[in-house]
Amino acid sequence: MTNKYFWLLTSWLISQPASASIIEYFREEDGHTNWQYVANWSSGILIVLLSITVLTLFFSRRQAHLANKALEAIRQELEERVRERTATLDESNRLLQEANQLLQGEIAQHRETANRLRNSESYIRDILSSMPLMLIGLTSDGVITQWNRRAEEITGIPATKALGTNLWQTYPTITLSQQQVKRSLQEKKPLTIKHSQRGQYHFDITIYPLREQAETGAVILVDDVTQHILAANMLIQRDKMSSMGELAATMAHDINPPLHQILTDVQTVKDALQLQPPSSVENITRLMDEADANGKQALAIIQNLLDFARSRGGERHQASIIDIIEHSLQLAKDVLSVPSGLHFRDISIERHYNQNLPDIPCYATELQQVFLSLFRHACHALGQVQKAGHTPIIRIQVMVCYDMLWIKVQHNGVGITNEEQQYIFEPFFTHTPGKAEDYDAGKRLSFSHFIITEQHQGQLAVTSDLNVGTTFHLQLPLT
């Protein structure tokens, strides 16, 4: 601002009007200009102006110096702030790097944990899928949360369709009620239910309530123990059969001597009676003949018991089914008769055997007992027929079909009712209430059914009509 006024003043002084007015001031009375005064005045003015200029420059320089000093202070302050900010930024970067390293470590650890969790889940899933038991997970509302491979195999329902659905809507045939599941959840303890259908399947169903989970639910295990039960029953039956064999042998040995003595005494009496006149001994001879026949029949029965007792145990052997049937027919002729007076030897036997029948692996004596039981059953049914002129007939058919040996034993005696067909293969001692306990034990074929189905892995069934007769169907494997 000072420089501005200085130059304005200088410009005014050197301008023509200003110069003229000043020169007029220094003129003498005679009109001459006193240039000495002009020079002195001008010098003074210049000195003043120079002083002003010097002062102006001094103050300007001083002001610039102060400004520079302030700027330097500001610069130093800014540099300090920059250094502080840089140090803070470096520290922040260091902390950020450390945080990133920690985060990367946590991420790596999380990934490792996630991988382990996935592996554990996959391992547990494989265990559940590979379990031989049917496993079902349920919520408290009955919604399926787990459905393993065994459940898919038994039910035929894939897990994709079962998961998230109600158990009793998806698998309504399950032998488990919602009340049983609720009972286990309420009591907070496992509940085991046994379900079986004799001769077909046996299941152990266990309900495990989930107690430590946030949501209540249950795990259901269905164990198919059919083979275990059948194996246990087979062992029991084998023990029974072994005991029966021992009992049969004991009875045979105990009964055999007195029977032999009776037959000997009968023969002695017969020989003595031959010396007497025929008229006096005719009736006695007839009685002796009957006693002799009955004694021989008893001996045949005892011999059959001995053969059966000696045959127990050991391996199965190849045998001809025709030979077994024929031997059973001959034995039946020797030992079978019914109270009605019908003897097995009076029954007409029709044989229908296919040619070139193969031998089969079997327990021949046990199969002989089966056929003897079937012939006994037929003999009783034929003896009940009251029709005049009725000819008792037993038809035996043997053939090979579908890698199995098929045998049919058919008779034209009195048939059995549908109700009796339900009990005929049941044992005498049964837990089934009702008329099953009243069914004649002599008509039961449970032992024959056991020999065919358990000892020979075959099948034994019956079809009957009260007015036509009965047919027993046997299937035996060829190998």
From TrEMBL:
Transmembrane parts of this sequence: 36-59
All copies of domain Histidine kinase, residue ranges: 250-479
PROSITE patterns xref list: HIS_KIN, PAS
Coiled coil: 61-120
GO BP terms: regulation of DNA-templated transcription
Catalytic activity: ATP + protein L-histidine = ADP + protein N-phospho-L-histidine
A single MF term (Gene Ontology): ATP binding
Keyword Transmembrane on entry: yes
NCBIfam families to which the protein is assigned, alphabetical: sensory_box
Name of this chain's protein: histidine kinase
